[in-house]
Amino acid sequence: RGSQAAAPWGRLPALLLMALAACAARASEITFELPDNAKQCFYEEIAQGTKCTLEFQVITGGHYDVDCRLEDPDGNVLYKEMKKQYDSFTFTASRNGTYKFCFSNEFSTFTHKTVYFDFQVGEDPPLFPSENRVTALTQMESACVSIHEALKSVIDYQTHFRLREAQGRSRAEDLNTRVAYWSIGEAIILLVVSIGQVFLLKSFFSDKRTTTTRVGS
């Protein structure tokens, strides 16, 4: 009995890895640089009836905003938002074909952005398919499903925390740069004012010679 109980638990890591691999194959996560006055588009082949989710967030740059647009194979606009910092959109493909989604920074003239997006196509396949199954999940299989769902939640939380940490670091660095420039400006102004006061006080105590000219008749 001991060997029979140990074998399924030994297959547990393999099952979880296979599930995570299948999950990763159905999603695209990319972080890219979007220059100022530029536009970047991505394309995805999607089958009809497939449920998809697009989630994006601007990590660094300017006011942390970007334009986003999603089109179906016929060019119909499914989603369009202007100057958004982050957002999420879920849709079901109405037909087979190539779907296009673009991020635009054309409204910015000198600030480039760093954008992260996660495009998920389809839903995660179940760990244990229910077809041709006449019995309920065993305790071990239920534990596998629970661990799998918990790991997916952990991955999502880690991703969002990394994005928030990167955005917070960018804001802190930007604030530090502004404070440094402001301090340098104040130092220059104080130096100029001090020199001006020295010359002004010196002019008060300097001797002024008056020349008198007598005009004789």
Automatic annotation (TrEMBL):
The chain crosses the membrane at residues 179-201. Keywords: Cytoplasmic vesicle, Endoplasmic reticulum, Glycoprotein, Golgi apparatus, Membrane, Protein transport, Signal, Transmembrane, Transmembrane helix, Transport. It comes from Galbula dea. This is Transmembrane emp24 domain-containing protein 7. Pfam families: EMP24_GP25L (PF01105). It is a single-pass type I membrane protein. Belongs to the EMP24/GP25L family. InterPro entries: Emp24-like, GOLD_dom, GOLD_dom_sf. The lineage of its organism: Eukaryota, Metazoa, Chordata, Craniata, Vertebrata.
